[in-house]
Amino acid sequence: MAGQNNQLKLLGSFAGPFVLRVKLALSFKGLSYEYIEEKDLLNNKSELLLKSNPVHKKVPVLIHNGKPVCESMIIIQYLEEAFADAGPSLLPSEPHERTVARFWASYIDEKLLSSWMMVFRGKTDEQKAEGTRQSLAVAATLEGALSECSKGKPFFRGDSVGYVDVALGGFVAWIHALEKL
Ligand SMILES: N[C@@H](CCC(=O)N[C@@H](CS)C(=O)NCC(=O)O)C(=O)O
């Protein structure tokens, strides 16, 4: 648990899928934190955000005892290391399994997101159709990996929730929206 000498703050925005990843990880680990909503993320970023994440100027940012950590999956790796005794470990301890989890989380960020963006932001019907085609191909690859790694169990690594589930879990609402589109 984050005690008085272990102060955690999370800068976020309410609909942010990347923020949700960090909220999920904090919750699975049972870590308490102060949540600070970035009220006008797109038009008027707070001083705290600009100071804490001067490179990307994006949320989430975790601030641990005054020190900022940026980028959702890097924050989760940080939580694993800085709070190793808190709650269940999200990354497997075995080095190869750990690397496989990182590989698929990075695949989600690099491939799934870029194809979704094509659907949401494509300017022509052709661009949107190409985005849909790529999204379905990427999802099929992910499905294959999920069924191979989970061995029919509910989570990516089997019985317990982990790093890849958290990487995808932030997007559940988006996936429903994409299905409608
Ligand atoms: N790669 C980043 C992406 C973060 C991101 O895109 N955050 C969005 C909100 S969910 C944001 O801050 N957008 C503000 C902007 O683009 O100016 C991560 O994983 O944390």
UniProtKB/TrEMBL annotation:
GO biological process terms, semicolon-separated: glutathione metabolic process
Q: Which GO terms describe its molecular function?
A: glutathione transferase activity
Q: Which residues form the GST N-terminal domain?
A: 6-87
Q: Which residues cross the membrane?
A: none
What are the protein's UniProt keywords?
Cytoplasm, Transferase
Note the InterPro entries from the entry: Glutathione-S-Trfase_C-like, Glutathione-S-Trfase_C_sf, Glutathione_S-Trfase, Glutathione_S-Trfase_N, GST_C_Tau, Omega/Tau-like, Thioredoxin-like_sf
Tree of life domain: Eukaryota
- Give the reaction(s) catalysed: RX + glutathione = an S-substituted glutathione + a halide anion + H(+)
Q: Which GO terms describe its cellular component?
A: cytosol
The main location is cytoplasm
- EC number(s) for this protein? 2.5.1.18
Report the PROSITE patterns cross-referenced here: GST_CTER, GST_NTER
Q: Which Pfam families match?
A: GST_N
Location(s), subcellular: Cytoplasm, Cytosol
For this chain, the family text in UniProt reads:
Belongs to the GST superfamily. Tau family.
The family database entries (PANTHER family) matched by this protein are listed as:
GLUTATHIONE S-TRANSFERASE, GLUTATHIONE S-TRANSFERASE, GST, SUPERFAMILY, GST DOMAIN CONTAINING
Please state what the protein is called: Glutathione S-transferase
In its UniProt entry, the species of origin is given as Miscanthus lutarioriparius
